[in-house]
Amino acid sequence: MEGDARRERTLETCPEAMRVACEALAASPLAILVLDDDLRVTECNEAAHHLLAGTDPAGKVITDVLPLRDPETETSGARDVRHSGVASLNRLVRTHPTPRRGPRTLCLSLFPLPPGQEGSGLICTIADITPETADTGTDPLRRLAAIQGEVGETLDHDTTCAELADALVPGAADTVVIALAEHMTQGDPPPLTPHDAEPLCPIACSGAPEGGQVWPLDQRPFAPLLAAHTPRATDTEADPGWLDAEPALKRLLRAAGAHALLAAPIMREGTVLGLLLLYRGQTPGPFSDEDIALVEKVCGYTARCLDHASRFHREHTIALAIQHSLLPRQPPTGAALDIADLRLPGEESGGGWFDVMPLSGARTGLAVGQVTGFGVRTATTMGELRTAGRSLATLDLQPGELLARLSRTTATLARDRSAAQRESGRLRAGCTYAEWDPLSCEVTVARAGGPEVLVVRPDRTIDTVGTPEGPSLGGPAEPIPSVTVAVPPESLLILHTPGLTDDPAEVPGLLRRALERVPDSDGVDARALCDELSALLTSHPRTIEAQVLVCRVMAFPRERVATLALPDGPQAAEAARACCEQHLRVWGLDEEVRFNGQLIVSEFAGNAVRHGTPPARLRLILDQALTIEVSDTGGNAPLLRHAQEGDEGGRGLFIVSQLADRWGTRYESGGGKTIWAEVDPPEKRDGGEG
Fold first, then answer.
1. What is the pTM of this model?
2. Whole-angstrom Cα distance, residue 223 to residue 211?
3. Closest by Cα among 325, 311, 445, 447 to 382
4. Cα dihedral 86→92→94→95 (10° resolution)
5. Distance between CA atoms of residues 629 and 603, nearest Å
6. Could you give the domains of the chain?
7. Is 630 helix (H, G, I), strand (E, B) or coil?
8. What are residue 431's DSSP bridge partners?
9. What is the rounded CA–CA span in Å between residue 437 and residue 28?
10. Among 89, 178, 480, 496, whose Cα sits 20 to 30 Å from the Cα of 285?
11. What is the pLDDT of residues 558-577, one digit of tens each?
């Protein structure tokens, strides 16, 4: 701190030091540009002018003066630096070739200027570190190595084709065009039709003359070489035979301003994947045998890259289809919950999931998880974990206990997978589980390697629940803590996977920006917030997919809840029946539901008196189904058994299981237990709603 202050005082109080510093920056061999908040260049030194080949960058956006291969990513990164105030150092970026220069590798750094000062924005420094091996001369091996070093950096068809086109210009040709077979562009397997019957789609072009046509409207001239699987070169002067037979090709060369053409099929295991066209206009002479041999090797290498990209694309598509089929079609809603979900795709997709599970007592379980990896196996593993979590939720476990059991299930899956496929890698997964209780307006959260749950309060302030992070799923067998907090009605609970942002600390800021775009009305609509998050993040490239679950929570209507403290004695069942009959009539439930409800409360109340520990309490809840609960402070749960003909008892819970659509036992966090049953209305049983 003292050193920083000393330097600031030196520059402020010593004009000579400031002058020397400015002169040093101006004369630096490192290109230095000053950018404003809109990323427009306001100042630059002489080295920057030289790097930009004499172009005046003043007033232009940085991505307009530098032909970057991925301008969207660099623009997003620059804005992140401006918003976060954290410098980005020594990023390697690639450029497209220009008429004057070939593709370059640049080392780019961004530094934020202090806020509140004139000219605030960013300082951008650029160093050209293009390898000297780019100048490969006439050595075929060096030329091939240089081209291969430029191609195949991603598993994307379009990017691979663009990289190849840029790598061949201007060293091998003045203009390069790459077209792919239609099945490649659509991610389909190769067709069974002849190669000349499948259309070719131009994907990438480099060095095209302005206004010049470089792709034929008629592809018939290339059918023979595609069928023969061999490249062919022609020159307007030395080899006019092919051109005389194909006037359309001759017109194309003239339109492209070229005197020589080299066409080569891109093949993989006997299948045509595409076509490579190289034109020479300014470069004298035809294509030599050495050029043809080099292009054949380049096409072979490119075919492998494209084949890998196709396999990845097909597996990616299958994994997404599996993932989509294993996720909830439509999250359930109730009287106390409004839910919206958002999926943001990434390069690694298939492992994210969410779930919304109705629980007893009008509660709702919310889960968001992520399996590390991508592809079909990751998607199926995700489906297994989601199914296991949903099954555990039906046991009415506390969130921490549920995740602990899910972690043991994950470890078992990992062992089975390793044994079957002889892999030693550990299955890595994380999950955040929350349980919303609309009667107490409390949420209980546990985390097993998952992000924190955020709460957006009605006044739009953002808090976290404050849940300690437990070990990831499949990790050490340690207790996973749970935290229960009160949440005001009309708040939003936000659960998400780690891929939402690169830095978890950025998530609240992202939510604030999204909330600013949501209309200020009575509460924040969950769907509207998801839409704004999508608008903010869709253009931002991400490696890992993200799942977001937004839940607007509400208090349960009090007029649809009834409670009664049960007396300790034989009169408990009578009091429970009377309470049930009274409230079910007020709620307008039909005679069948009322009759079944009275039988159930009689059995529950009798069990509480005979086997429970007082005090006991009856609670009736009317949501999408009628819920009947009897709680006591004892810890012994009733056990359903099938009574024999000579048994005098043991039939009560069997009768309950026949009358109720769902029933079970849950242990309360504060001690005691609750026996519950749910009875659906007749229209739901008959296949109506729900």
1. 0.71
2. 26
3. 325
4. 60
5. 11
6. 2-130 (3.30.450.20), 136-316 (3.30.450.40), 327-553 (3.60.40.10), 558-685 (3.30.565.10)
7. strand
8. 369, 449
9. 64
10. 178
11. 999 999 999 988 899 999 99
